[in-house]
Fold this protein.
Amino acid sequence: MKKGRSFEAHLASFARSNKSGTRVLARYADGFTARHLQWTLLGGEDGVEVQARWFNPTSGSENKASLRLQLDLLGGQSLLAALSHLEPEYTGSCEDAETCFLAIKRNNDLWSCSVYGAELLRSEHPELAAFFSVWEPIVAAVESALRAHAEEQTRTDSREPAFMLAHRHSSNHREELLASQKCGCFYCRKTFAPSAVVEWIENGATALCPSCGIDSVIGDASLYPIDPDFLKAMADHWFAQLSEQRRKTSSAPPTAE
């Protein structure tokens, strides 16, 4: 399992720690998925800190979160005894599989185990049931905290106007765009079918408008309206200078022939 320098530093510090009670260090990576979720958890009976990061394929952005939660599963010496018969590492044959690492320390006793390709190894190594009996409640607690974080972020986002939120759907959106019935450009404000898009940038992930060539295209699969009013609102915000020029042009008196 590739742990990386920062995690190796976490592990070394964890091993040297002289804090009393039961402490836990865990690391998870979901393998080759669109989400690319990774998190590291460190703490003890007084609470744990989680550092998580993941990729949002819709917005094309990497997200990070720092979370604090309680784990009511650290059973001290009995927990270490139940896990002591496991090998320090289990590796499956599949590349880019999910990775689980768990270390538990009770006073001066330290145990650790890494499982690379967790789902594939369950049937091959029945003894890993002990590992997963500890691991799965940890994952459930982290996932619950991540969902709560996402819900709070959604509530924060909902305070922003829709024409600002819709901008996230104008890049890294190929699947969403091709699933749309109607597309629109908030630069030139033309509407068209997804099949009209012939040019893509960012390794084929982001569409260029077939009318003006600008990367300002969204589709109705984004659940935002593709109509003149909404495209104008987006243009007024994201291309404010252009919108002002259009306003002056439209209000200017006709020139004499």
Observations:
- Residues 1-5, 251-257 have pLDDT under 50 and may be disordered.
- Residues 245 and 251 are 10 Å apart (CA to CA).
- The longest helix spans residues 129-157.
- The two ends are 77 Å apart (CA to CA).
